[in-house]
Structures are given as C-alpha cells and as structure tokens.
Amino acid sequence: MLLNCYQEEFLEAGCDEAGRGCLAGPVFAAAVILPRDFKFEGLNDSKQLTHQQRDILRPIIEKEALAWAVASCDHEEIDKINILNASFLAMHRAIEKLHTQPQYLVIDGNRFRAFPQIPHSCIIKGDGKYLNIAAASILAKTHRDEFMTNLHIDFPHYNWQQNKGYPTIAHRKAVIEIGLSPFHRKTFNVSDPQLDLFSKNA
Question: Strand 104-108 vs strand 67-73: parallel, antiparallel, or unpaired?
C-alpha cells in the first residue's frame, strides 16, 4: 500500500509527467493534492496499471482530490527548450493551475526546477511510493493518451491510437517511410541504425 504523502506538516501536491520519451506529441504533467485520509487500494504508478484500470481511476481521482490540474508543453516547445526543461515547464504550469496552492511539492524523479516560494523534494520512483504522485502519474498519462488518440484520427499511419507516440518499431518504420508529421519532435532523430538496434532488442 502506498503512503498518502511524503510529509504531513504542509499541504502537499504530488507531481509527475507523461510522454517524455515519445517521438511525437506534447509532454503532459499533473499536480494533485489528495485529502489526508484518502485511501484507494488500486491506486499505483500508472505504468503498473492497465489502460482500463487507469481509466477507472481517473474520475475517482478528479472527484476526490482537494485540487488537481493537468498542463502540457507541445512538440515545438520541446524542440526549442529540450524535453527535460519542457517537462519541468509542464509541471510548473500544472502547479500554477491548482485552485488551492500547495505548501510543499513532491516530484517523481531525481531532478526538478524549483517552483517559486514552494519547497520540494524529488523522489526516485515516487509514483510507486506515494499516492499523490501516483495520482498525478495517472492523470498525466490518461490526459495525454486521450490527446494522442484524438490526433490519430487525422494521422492514422503512425498508429498513435495504440503507441501514443512512443518509439515502437512500427512507429519508427512509419516515420522513415512516410516522414514526420506536424506533431513530431524534430529534435528526436529516427534512423535505420536505431531501428535495427531496437529490432534486435525487441
């Protein structure tokens, strides 16, 4: 069972992102403040859950959270400032959108750009340790998946409905054969040697 929060002295928001390793689309981030007594046995790191489980948990989190927000940085911003900085910016945007200001932030991972006037801690694999980070991971993932599924309608050749922009073998082949879409990250290179390497490890 995951712990409710990292510390109990201050009102805490958990933060996480989704889509950092994708070839296309935005990076999404979420910030979630849960009630201190919030418990839900099925809530876990989004990567440990099925698509169906995440879809069931999303409305529960959005209903029960004291505050939640989702934000993104698009592919052009990612190409301009790099994916790490874009992930930080998306998290900042999500925190800014919260209708209740947190007094403390817990960030999944080992790096973060400090948010003005709010202390934070970075927690490696925090989405598998704390409910508020796990909740943020689920919201970031489900909102991003929804975005990519909608993009798939206009760009079916890349199969974003299934791969959500991640560098699957089929996605890489489509990029090499068809070229980049307007939503691909141009600084994320796809080449035949990379494709061969991924094929050998698949």
Answer: unpaired
DSSP category for residue 136: H
Q: How far apart are CA 202 and CA 198, in angstroms?
A: 6
Tokens of 46: 């989004």
Query: 122 to each of 20, 107, 136, 164, 168, how far by Cα in Å?
Result: 17, 5, 14, 27, 29
The verdict on pTM exceeding 0.85 is yes
Q: Under a CB-based contact definition with an 8 Å cutoff, are residues 158 and 169 in contact?
A: no
**Residue 193 pLDDT exceeds 50:** no
pLDDT of residue 1: 81
Binding positions = 16-17, 108
Point out the annotated binding site for a divalent metal cation.
16-17, 108
